[in-house]
Amino acid sequence: MSAVFVRVALDHPLPTLFDYRCDTSILAVPGMLVSVPFGKRHVVGLVCEVTAHSDVPADRLRSVSDLCTACPPVSAEWLKLTAFAADYYQRGLGEVALPALPQALRDASRWSRLFAPEERYSLTPQGRIALPDALPARASALRKLAQALAESDFLLAADARALHPKALASLAAWQDEGWVALDVIEAAAVVGSPASQNLPAPPVLPTLTDEQAAAVEAIRDADGFAPFLLHGVTGSGKTEVYLRALAEILAERPDAQALVLVPEINLTPQFEAAFRARFAALDGTAIVTLHSGLAEGERARNWFAAHTGRARIVLGTRLAVLASLPKLAIIVVDEEHDPAYKQQEGLRYSARDLAIYRAKQLGLPVVLGSATPSLESWWQADQGRYKRLTLSRRAVADAVLPTVRLIDLEEERRRGRASVEGLSGPLIAALKLRVERGEQSLIFLNRRGYAPQLACDACGWVAGCPRCSAYVVLHKPERALRCHHCGWEARIPRSCPECGNVDIEPMGRGTQRVEETLASAVPGARVLRIDADSTRRKGSAQALFSDVHAGEIDILVGTQMIAKGHDFQRVSLVGVLNADTALFSHDFRASERLFAQLMQVSGRAGRSGLPGEVLVQTRYPRHALYHALGRQDYVGFAGSTLAERRDAHLPPFVYQALLRAEGRTLEAALAFLQQAAAELTGIPAAERVTVYDAVPLTIVKVMHVHRAQLLIESASRAALQATLRAWQPLLRGLKGVLRWNLEVDPLDI
């Protein structure tokens, strides 16, 4: 038998494939996972090529240690997708392909357990009745185990052990009592049996508006690659369009799969509930989720379900765009404008852009939905590259868009009208009125914590982070000062560390302070705060949102977590605080993001037929952005902003890349970037590229590391990409910094 060699992609910064000898009797094929020696350790890699010859000298070749035969190889199309992402975002193929796989698959020691037969437990009807009463009141761990059984169709043995150290013994005892049933299944079936071949329509479907029906028909009749921009006002029924389009496509092709992307994890529960309710004829596990909040085992099982075609619908955040889906037939990107689709660490990719490329690669429709599309997508539709589908009115017959009213804070001050901790009199009065009516209100403030700073009036001291060039945020409930950049935390000082003054005061307002103020300003109101601090524990966000939907909350206070995607049926008032800060940002995208946030949060009001009202507190009521918001005029705002971008030569009319450097000193980081800029002079394609001066980042120091950036741009995407490809090897030869990274199409500059 002649020798066989494989070229393997490894999760390593070097943009090359590594050759190995394949001595096993099992034939390796492209797309197969292998365990190989790399230096002094063994790592998992992905076979990209199989060849009979290798250019590496025989004495330097090492052999493949193991092959993962239980997991089918990924497809050639998936390898091409990751190769494109690696090339476009200037990373090694292994740095893209391997992190796209579940962590469990990247550990060869877990392969045998991962694909071994699984034991799973489920509650019997008798157990649902008898088990809760049989548990001791103080047995909190056992109660969690019982609750996990009650809330799911089945519980795997591995997941049970994670909940309780002696879970299997307890489950065996409950099995003896007849409360729990046990069955053993093959790994390939852990995520469920194959889906039903037909997708019968549910007995009752909402009546589509004419615009919804036209959108569904256009998506259903698409032939080959067809990018759609679904521009629908908030509450216009974009989700219903997704559901109908998917139902028709999946019914036409019994083995087809659909990928639905959402920007944030906290949006997945309500989407999953809607999809499971609509596609009830599917096996319960033929709809799976993929996001970073899943446990490793659960994510691996869901990925495997998608990879083997058992999952018909995959719902996930940005990482799901690189899931292996061999029968993919349609892609949906909800809230396509959201910056959360852009990864900010490691491979800095845009999930929305990769979704569009993947649809083009496979020749299938992709639907980008939003009430406030990104200006890049809007421009593509203006140019005719995307087909625009419009939903101009709300889907519920008696639901209309909320009225927007601006509260001039300067006018309120001139007239001597009192405010309470940043809440104006008109806003407090409107909140009290909603509480009296039994309606809900939403207060939006995109700043968590109690106050942005803690300061001393006597000497001017402001609490700062010792590791970062940033102020720390006061978190009053925890009695702590916390840095939101590095996580540094300290107790609140009793006095000013500079002058000893005991009258140190918080400056500004965060969601915690607003929550506290509302409790006294609106007596009797049930106030709930939802932000990154109140939803740290797994499942906490879903529980809090459930309280809101159940009507147990009168006033909801939150950050951007509550601004988009949620269907609050009882909310009739939205109040917006501290929006003015974004009007004067150095970031040219700040106004676009602010307008999108305000339009999205405004859309939470009046969705079920209740008259909706939005009150925006501002010191600049004559600003053009607020006027466009008052008219709910996204089209006008997009047109004027794109005209400004064109005149200023900003995206989408140019293409950009950002080189960031991190050093022990700012001088070292800037010197590295200046050397990097000098290297561009020898690259022919760089003649069509504009290079800006190296500058420090807005937050210069994080964790004692100083940061700077160098921006380059070009009116030609091809010229920029050619420049980056030639620049990368030169950058690797430069020294003097701790690390550097290159980002294509940056969102934060």
Automatic annotation (TrEMBL):
Describe the location of the Helicase ATP-binding domain by residue ranges.
219-391
Q: Does the keyword Lipid metabolism apply?
A: no
Catalytic activity reads: ATP + H2O = ADP + phosphate + H(+); Couples ATP hydrolysis with the unwinding of duplex DNA by translocating in the 3'-5' direction
What does the note accompanying the cofactor annotation read? Binds 2 zinc ions per subunit.
Cofactors needed by this protein, per the record, are:
Zn(2+)
Q: Domain of life here?
A: Bacteria
Q: Decide whether keyword Methyltransferase is in the record.
A: no
Q: InterPro entries, from UniProt? A: DEAD/DEAH_box_helicase_dom (IPR011545), Helicase_ATP-bd (IPR014001), Helicase_C-like (IPR001650), P-loop_NTPase (IPR027417), PriA (IPR005259), PriA_3primeBD (IPR041222), PriA_3primeBD_sf (IPR042115), PriA_C (IPR041236)
Q: What class of enzyme is it?
A: isomerase
Which GO terms label this protein's molecular function in UniProt?
hydrolase activity
Binding positions (Zn(2+) 2): C465, C468, C483, C486
Chain segments annotated as coiled-coil in the UniProt record? none
- Where Zn(2+) 1 binds, per the record, is at C456, C459, C496, C499
Which UniProt keywords are present, listed alphabetically?
ATP-binding, DNA replication, DNA-binding, Helicase, Hydrolase, Isomerase, Metal-binding, Nucleotide-binding, Primosome, Zinc
Q: How does it assemble?
A: Component of the replication restart primosome.
| Described purpose of this protein according to its UniProt entry | Initiates the restart of stalled replication forks, which reloads the replicative helicase on sites other than the origin of replication. Recognizes and binds to abandoned replication forks and remodels them to uncover a helicase loading site. Promotes assembly of the primosome at these replication forks.
What HAMAP family does the annotation carry?
PriA
Can you name this protein? Answer: Replication restart protein PriA
Gene encoding it? priA
